[in-house]
Amino acid sequence: MADLKLADVAKAYGAVEVLRNINLEIAAGELIVFVGPSGCGKSTLLRMIAGLEQITGGTLEIGGQVMNDVPPAQRGIAMVFQSYALYPHMTVRDNMSFSLQLAGKSKEEINRAVDEAARKLQLTDYLDRLPKALSGGQRQRVAIGRAIVRDPKVYLFDEPLSNLDAALRVATRIEIAQLKASMPGSTMIYVTHDQVEAMTLADRIVVLAGGGIAQVGAPLELYERPANTFVAQFIGSPAMNLFEAEISATGPETRLRLETGTEIAAAVPSPESLAGAKVQFGIRPEDLVIAENGAMPFIEFRTDIVEKLGDTTVLYSRDPSQNDGQMIAKQPGIVNAEPGSVLQMTASPQKIHVFHKGTSLLYL
């Protein structure tokens, strides 16, 4: 196992800057997940760590050694790609052992490593099969096993589940989580566009946006304390609702005046200098609830679409004040609402996030 350090890492293709000022320290044994929108540079960053892309600026260290000019084969990494890339004419055992054979390992060493990896990945019964006799999930496990047998310093996963159907993706995600639990000393970096994978697997999540790092933190930290509106809307499904407001009173609790003139409280401290400031406040769809038992509503929710999913009901309302023209409420269980119905909504002050016009939370 090894730790990694990226200091002021940058990547440019000619005059086009893709990544800049990437500063990140990854402890030995951590599972770090890179997430972000398409084109944000998460796979490029992973390939730079692997040595498949040249680093334009800054330094990369693995285990305390600068790796900028070290060939990929000498970095002590193993990479699992989006495509399984298995040799179709080789059995599972031969696919997993091929790199060890090239390295000149003894037959005993190879068999021991392959058998141990197969046991961890529940592939023991498939070692003599060809890839065409395996399901997609099993093939991806073979690709992971091929990485495990090399006993690398760092494992790199580049969207390994994106080619699987929904059911297989869930099953394989659980298997990867179990694999990490069985290998607590292994350092892993995982790239995905699926935030469920990120929230399930990560010790810490790195959110990339605009060529840099938007926020780094534990999954629930990003969910509960997003550093900016991008992270607030990227982490969580459906995305956070954002509204315009003005600060009418500051102190340990901030009072906000909505565009309708209604005032609400947010359990967010603010300095006196922000009195009268224009801000955005956010409420996650699952925190927007129907006002009952005397609770004071502050949003009139005119229902446009109702998704009755059994365990939850998702309500959509057209709202021109929203960036995408839509407000969403996610209610537990079954809600007796139909398109066209009007619901009075509220939210706990502890569930209201306040942002400096999309830059950062007031209390950070």
Descriptors for this entry?
alpha+beta; Rossmann fold; OB fold (Dihydrolipoamide Acetyltransferase, E2P); 32% strand; 6-stranded mixed sheet; 2 domains; 364 residues
Helical segment tally? 8
Estimate nothing, just give the exact number of structural domains: 2
Q: State the end-to-end distance.
A: 34 Å
Mind describing the biggest β-sheet?
A: 6 strands, mixed
Structural class: alpha+beta
Residues in helix, %: 10-25%
Task: Give the overall average pLDDT.
Answer: 90
Number of strands: 21
Q: Could you give the order of the helices and strands?
A: EEEHEEEHHHEHEHEEHHEEEEEEEEEEE
Second CATH tier, the architecture of the largest domain = 3-Layer(aba) Sandwich
CATH level 1 name of the largest domain: Alpha Beta
- Overall morphology: globular
| CATH 4th-level superfamily of the largest domain | P-loop containing nucleotide triphosphate hydrolases
Radius of gyration, in Å, reads 24 Å
What is the third-level CATH name, the topology of the largest domain? Rossmann fold
Our estimate of the beta-strand percent is: 25-35%
Unreliable runs: none
